[in-house]
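Pipeline run #58 for the internal structure catalog. This entry was flagged by the ingest filter as a single-chain record with no existing model, so it goes straight to prediction. Upstream metadata was stripped on purpose; only the residue string is passed forward. Reviewer on rotation: M.T. Logging verbosity set to normal.
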Amino acid sequence: MDTHSIKMDEPIGETRLDRGVQNVIGKGIDRLEGPLKVSGRAPYAYEHQHAGKVAYGYLVTSSIGSGDIVSIDTDAAMAMAGVLHVVIDKHGVRASADPSDAKPAAIAGKVTHFGQPICLVVAESFEIARDAAKLVHVEYKATEGKYDLHAEKANAFDPGEQTMPSMTEKGDFDAAFGKAEVTFDATYTTPSHSHSAMEPHTSVAVWDGDDLTLYGSYQLVSTNVGQLAAALGINKKHVRIVSPYVGGGFGGKLGISPEAVFAALAAKEIDRPVKLALTRQQVYQVTSRRPDTIQRVRIGTTKDGVVTAIGHDTTTGNTPGDDGFEPAGISTVFLYGGDNRQIRHWKADVNILLGASMRAPGEAVGMLATENAMDEMAEKLGLDPVQFRKLNEPAVDPQEGLPWSSRMLVECMDEGARRFGWDKRSVRPGTRREGEWLIGLGMAAASRKNMLQQSSARVTLAADGSALIETDMTDIGTGTYTILRQIAAEMLGLPADKVAVSLGDSELPQAPGSGGSWGANSSGSSVYAACEGIIEALAKKLDVSAEDLTLKDGTAIAGNRQTPFTQLLAGENIVVTGKFAPGKQYTATHQASYGAHFCEVAVNAFTGETRVRRLLTVAAAGRILNEKTATSQCYGGQIFGIGSALHEELVIDTRTGLLVNHDLAEYHVPVNADVPQLEVVLLPERDHAASPLAAKGIGELALAGVGAAVTNAIYNACGVRVRDYPMTLDKVIAGLPRPSFRSAAE
């Protein structure tokens, strides 16, 4: 088996993907695994069957938010018929692991947040385990907890570099802001969010001697293997994770979770396979959340609207010892110009569930603040919001001075404004009315830093003319199966249905997994590399250069010869492992995806109810690998953004740290009636510095800024600004003028 490696030290020019001989890449072809999912034949983690008799687990969780575990009385539970065991183990973990952690934090006799796992009851059925768990008595020594971010803001500290540097400065912000001709200074707050994936966290653990196989629902299989092994205190060579289908993640399944560790412990101790599925309430209470934020945004400009100073200060909360922060300023660093810049992040210790990555960590909530602030500043200057943003379009990265690898933000705003009819927007809020509904238009920019990771994939061109892709990359509903198939089909000149894809098994070559919008670009680049190796091998068989070889419809064409693969391979397979690494281009250029959102809302003049009537997203994210899956990703981001603006709030009881609305009945996300007909426009772009595919991430870009477009539209409709998200009708109605029933009737 050969290896073919690519390191992006230089931009890669025109490739076979640009020539598109097979005409597969970029097309909106249907998902490879779609028929399996809609017919119920795609096995999710909990559905894996085993020859051995399976036992079932149920977590016992804490009823306090902070303290020490004094004792655990399991006698009553063990006396129940059908109960097999209660797992009380120092290796048990208290919440999901951060994806960058070597292992998840252990319980260690402590309670750090309400609902924290304490132990696991194992029984012959789920129902017996659940009922027995209620009989486990835990005695605590409670300590005073910290459950309110606002109350702890004064005690916040610099957590140091995490996803990004916690402190980023350039020039003299304080001096420039003090001298600015026009200034803006406001504080925005966003609540905690829950990932709320449709498939709950589940694991099935099976031991064979010293070797563990865990069927789980995870996004980063190669990383998760190491975390699970470290949590169990064993060598990772003894751990295999299988995760071929994931029913949604949004970041909530990046790090290994308590159910995996407890299932593995239980299966070892009773010598039987163990299934453990978290209830919906437990998913909310014991996995992770997006932290709530307090964000102060300051902008200083000339009287003509040129930004001279921009500041963005964010405070977030996380459990003691977990210093991850919500990087709300991640786009503020580069999105707009300004010689004097100050982007700072602080973390406060709170006894609330682990704060971790959630779709578009940083941008999702950071741009709620900054894109509202840009609109507020535009109004103060008497400028159109699009005009103000274009006026402050930087020629290079304003922080580091790096050239853009590609940047089409202005094109996205212009195209969106044209398509949406932005020129018909009423400048003065509250002046367009249809009966009792006030109508408004709003917009916001979008950006998402492009992230690349090392990746590997094995591609086999079989003697029968078919191909197989193997990598431990995951598909969390984003279309990875289909996109990797398209890349190989285009590179190797095969019909798409001649390419099979195997994913989500840690025994396969390591990929970076699904997260950070790096998945398709990184894993796809390793598939690309493997295909290049196969092409070189085919060219060698024909005694021609790879550049002179055309592959189409399962044949190799060189000069006047056209040879079917089946004849050329002569009964032998070609197997190549492709390896990809970002290289110098990743740091020599500033790489990001860009977009613009335009929204029309109707606000009821009497009730404050908001209805989103139109929503358009225009995006530029390099080569679009599959138009259908990319558009679907944008739909999901748009809906997510509507929820962030109007619905989504994880309510925390500041007396105990309980997540009050810990189910889908009370944690409100948009439903069909909340979502209008959505429109997505994907602008043609190639970013040859970003990857061999000339692509960039789009999944998280689609969410960044959407909520601000909605709330900016609400202000244009009714003149009400709310800086405390979500913008629920009670907050809107408080700012509305006393309604005139006469004017409504007229």
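catalog note: DSSP finds 20 helices and 28 strands in the chain.
catalog note: The two ends are 79 Å apart (CA to CA).
status: ready for reviewer M.T.
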